[in-house]
Amino acid sequence: LIQLEIPYTVLLDDTAAATEVRVVRLPLVNYYRGQGHKIVVALDVTDGLNRAAEDPELVALGRSITDTAVQRLYREYVAAVDSILTPDYLSLAAETNLIRLAAPDSVYQAVVTMVNAAHAERSAAGSATRFMVSVQVETAWGGLQGSGVYEGIAQDRVDFPFLDALGLSSYPYLGGFADPDSIPLNYYSR
Questions:
Q1: Please, which residues bridge with residue 166 across strands?
Q2: CA distance 169 to 188
């Protein structure tokens, strides 16, 4: 898995997405591919350490993923990643259920809009990549909300209907499981 933060600051400085992907990302992907590994690229559209917030570099520039110009840059970056890196799987957003829970609704709606638009563009271009998003397991189980009530991921499946696969991020200790043996057997399959 290759996790890529969207290089918003680079892209907003008029660096073409294709140039950034070809020069910075492609050598690493070629190395892993040369070792016989499948390539899974995960794009992170918000702040990976705080899903209630947007990318700090983007915010520092006074910009937001709610801006149509930033959404266009995201779609251009997705197109470059898909067409140049040709990953086996491409995750278009990370922990969508946690973003929906923690971020302002306008940010979550921007994620839904830009991710679905990027997927539609890549499908129209004939991409052979399998597309996905990831969800946060402890959020699905209500652990991060403190309720402990299973909430599932039905809304994520509605909001991102194109899913070929689903990524799971999990930190069981945040869900209250100090001992790995105490994790329920259906914790990930459900």
A1: 133
A2: 10
